[in-house]
Amino acid sequence: MIEVRNLTKAYGETLAVDDLSFTVRPGIVTGFLGPNGSGKSTTMRMILGLDAPTSGTATVGGRPLAEHDRPLTSLGFLLDAGAVHPKRPAHDHLRSLAVTNGLPVSRVDHVLDVVGLGEVGRRRSGGFSLGMGQRLGIAAALLGDPEVVMLDEPVNGLDPEGILWIRHLLQNLAAEGRTVFVSSHLMSEMELMAEHFVIIGRGRLISDISADDLRATAKGESTDVRADRLGDLVGLLRADGVEIVSSDRETITVHGRTATEIGGVARDAGITLHALVPEQRSLEDVFMSLTADAVEYHASAATPVAV
Q1: pLDDT tens string 102-137
Q2: What is the rounded CA–CA span in Å between residue 183 and residue 6?
Q3: Residues 54-76, buried b or exposed e (16+ Cβ, 10 A)?
């Protein structure tokens, strides 16, 4: 388990992380979300002990990672897949990590096979594609068979098959009872992968929420309705104080009532419904709404590229 308590990191007068608290629990995949510059990478670095907090604490299994005898068996991580000497073969890179961390060298071939690099393990990593480099970084994270796995943008550079693979891998690790903490900008993928979300902006916690609860907030309050006696249905709904956002001869958009409630009104009046379609926002829309005030840079869509 990862526990972050009142974590703060200041660079001069700039607060990269501001009194941040959350818990990452075992058995589920937790997504770490936020706009660029929100403090995600800084937070991860403080969890690893690479950056010292200005105040607050970050612990793994109840204590700072630096106090663990063999840190890679406690927390496997990926922050920068490019942090590998380009002339060193993948196998040698992982072997050096195993030897210096007191891990069985037999783990090297195993994790290379797990990430799909078994056949190219003797090749120099400098010749790897971006996706292959990501797989090597994930192999290093898994080398110590850790209780906690923390990955920063692990799907960068992966093709669709690779993205599906990392999704299943992380879900399987969580199903084994491990703690899985992963950041990504791909909301469509995080929606499929994660069961809980920690969302931050400008270094502060915006939301610490389950995926189910976040999906519940994505449900809109508008419903498109088609019926055989549409005018009668409009009159009944308006008499009940319901707002009709828009209407035409065939369809109305009702605001402030669920599809079930609208269906009940139509049933009681003997009105046959032809369509009853609730609005559903994507989790990406919800994320954009939650973090709108925390985006550091806004591009203008109205400004032409060529002048």
Answers
A1: 999 999 999 999 999 999 999 998 889 888 999 999
A2: 20
A3: eebebebbeebbeeeeebbbbbb
Tell me which residue of 11, 9, 15, 104 sits closest to 47, measured CA to CA: 9
What the block records as the tokens of 304 is 């032409």
Helix, strand, coil % in the chain, rounded to nearest 5: 40, 30, 35
CA–CA gap between residue 262 and residue 279 (Å, rounded): 14
What pTM did the predictor assign? Answer: 0.79
Q: With CA atoms as reference, report the closest residue to 24 among 166, 179, 154, 169.
A: 179
Structure tokens at 222: 């508008």
Q: What is the pLDDT of residue 190?
A: 87
Alpha-carbon span 107 to 176, nearest angstrom:
18
**Beta strands, E only, the chain:** 2-11, 14-24, 29-33, 55-60, 75-78, 148-152, 179-183, 196-201, 204-210, 219-227, 243-247, 252-255, 273-280
